[in-house]
Amino acid sequence: MILPFALLLGAIASAPVLAPKWWLRHYAKVALGLGAITLVYYIFVLRDTVSLAHTGHEYVSFIALVGSLYVVSGGIHIGVKGGATPFKNAVFLFVGAIIANLLGTTGAAMLLIRPWIRMNQSRVTAHHIVFFIFIVANVGGCLTPIGDPPLFLGYLQGVPFWWVLEHCWPMWSVGIGLLLAMFYVVDKISFTRAPVVLREKETATETWRFAGLSNLFFLAVILGAVFISRPEFLREILMLLAAVGSYFTTKKAVHAANEFNFHPIEEVAILFAGIFATMMPALDWLNQNAAQLLGQHPAPGIFFWGTGVLSSALDNAPTYLGFLSALFGVAGTEDIHELLGLQHLQILAISVGAVFFGAATYIGNGPNFMVKAIADQQKVATPSFFGFICKFALPFLLPVLLIVWLTFFR
Predict the structure, then answer these.
(1) Can you say how many angstroms the Cα of residue 252 is from the centroid of all Cα atoms in its chain?
(2) What is the DSSP string of 102-114?
(3) I need a labelling partner for 232 at 20 to 30 A (CA). Which of 52, 73, 120, 305 fits?
(4) 104-155: per-residue pLDDT in tens?
(5) By CB neighbour count within 10 A (0-12 exposed, 13-18 middle, 19+ buried), where does 384 fall?
């Protein structure tokens, strides 16, 4: 029953390259059709409606958060100057990494991706999009539970709010520092090779300015709703209301300036509906067998690489929960505070692995696909699924992951 999940991942990876027009017309049928196979199996064979309800709730929460942040951030327009230098670009990405901990990686990515493209409009290439995904949409959000979905799930499991900042900042500093250094070198080479006329080109007559700041109120509603767990679905309802309020109160000129439409979030909602459904058997197997696979005294590195590799393929939020559940079994306790004392480094490895490896593929974290969809919409050349992995994740992200592992989790 893991086969539908494998087929869906294979389709997402290969179909946009081998048959792009066919995929654009039929990706919804593929994703939802494969998801339906798993749903039928759970309903009529396993008769396990509890797992279905739990996964459905997680999916609704995921889409409510990602979708509402997409709508609200689409109502804020940041005017920028074009012709950005490599140094200005690096500063922008660093600021984006900070903001990711306040607005979440989804909110920060959706707020900043359009100005990022306009800043580099005269010479924007694949590396601008990929390093934006690495830094703003993933690694940057490692300092607070708001920053990235797996850390928020850990907070809901009882991990103290400030525990993340207190213990993850060294890994965050190393990861962000290395990625920014790599980006600067790559962008410097690109900048040097660009014709002088392109280097000096400005984006029309724009300067730094902000429009649609009334949406900050709706953004605050969404962030406040994140901490509401009872009654059931109140959190998601508040997020939906904030999105509706934002959409209908934002001036059309702001949406037009952002080239805002619902296609990117529609694509993410459909593909992740299939992913959430088809990955249930894989996660069930992980939960049932992880304790035996890990042994009685697993090293932190096992959790770092195990959580990380599966996060890049399974989405990092449910993978985080799977390995945290396995760690409870290994430690023989159900008390999160006792676990933090017994398995401190292991929990840290799960947290950092889930966040950092979410950048390894387009499906590792929700914002990745949305950033790609917006970039494609604005005619920016983005790498394919395998191109992302082979041309960027392996040569740039993997060395960072190795250094983090050797420094903190070996």
Answers:
(1) 28
(2) HHHHHHHHHHHHH
(3) 73
(4) 888 889 889 988 998 888 888 999 999 999 999 999 999 988 888 788 878 8
(5) middle
Enter the tokens of residue 180: 């920014």
Q: Which residue do the tokens 């992302």 mark?
A: 388
Direct distance between the N- and C-terminal alpha carbons of the chain, in angstroms, rounded to an integer: 34
- Whole-number Å distance between alpha carbons of 14 and 7: 10
Give the tens place of pLDDT for each residue, 47-75: 999 989 988 888 888 888 878 888 988 88
Tell me how many degrees the CA angle 66-400-63 measures, rounded to the nearest 5: 10
Instruction: Determine contact, residues 342/335, Cβ cutoff 8 Å.
Output: no
Report helix, strand and coil shares of the chain as percent, to nearest 5.
Answer: 75, 0, 25
Residues 6+ apart with CB under 8 A from 227: none
Question: For residue range 374-385, what is the model confidence (pLDDT) as tens digits?
Answer: 898 888 888 988
Contact 323, 307 (CB under 8 A): yes
**Cα-based distances in Å from 358 to 163, 363, 388:** 21, 8, 13
Burial class (CB in 10 A: 0-12, 13-18, 19+), 371: buried
Spell out the long-range contacts of 125-129 with Cβ–Cβ below 8 A and sequence spacing 24 or more: 125/190, 125/380, 125/381, 126/380, 126/381, 126/382, 126/383, 126/387, 126/391, 126/392, 127/183, 127/186, 127/187, 127/190, 127/392, 128/89, 128/187, 128/380, 129/371, 129/372, 129/375, 129/380, 129/382
- Alpha helix (H) residue ranges in 203-315: 215-225, 234-249, 252-257, 263-278, 280-294, 300-314
Q: What single-letter DSSP state applies at residue 96?
A: H
363 band by pLDDT with thresholds 50, 70 and 90: confident
Q: Give the global pTM.
A: 0.80
Q: Distance between CA 132 and CA 118 in Å, rounded?
A: 13
